[in-house]
Amino acid sequence: MAASPLLGDLAGLPPLLIQGATGDPLGDARPLHERARTQGVAAELELYPSDAHAFQLFWSFLPEAADALEAAGRFVAERLATGRGRGDR
Questions:
Q1: pLDDT at 89
Q2: Of 46, 42, 45, 44, nearest to 86 (Cα)?
Q3: d(CA 32, CA 27)
Q4: How are the residues of the chain apportioned to helix, strand and coil, as percentages rounded to the nearest 5?
Q5: Distance between CA atoms of 52 and 61, rounded to whole angstroms?
């Protein structure tokens, strides 16, 4: 693995929305969420019932993927509206 957020310094990042699939073979969403919070980053974790890594790519036929993209859009819009997207916690 050449680069991984699981190995890097996450301190100072803006708030994160981490979405993962419950059956993802890589299973990196939970460890990333824990690492971000440990390093002082405001992070939210959402898990969806899917077995695919990057399941959001299947938005056109997987309802969970469409739901995840809508949630991501809301997350960004809320932070833009409140100005909470610049690393503040």
A1: 47
A2: 42
A3: 10
A4: 40, 15, 50
A5: 13
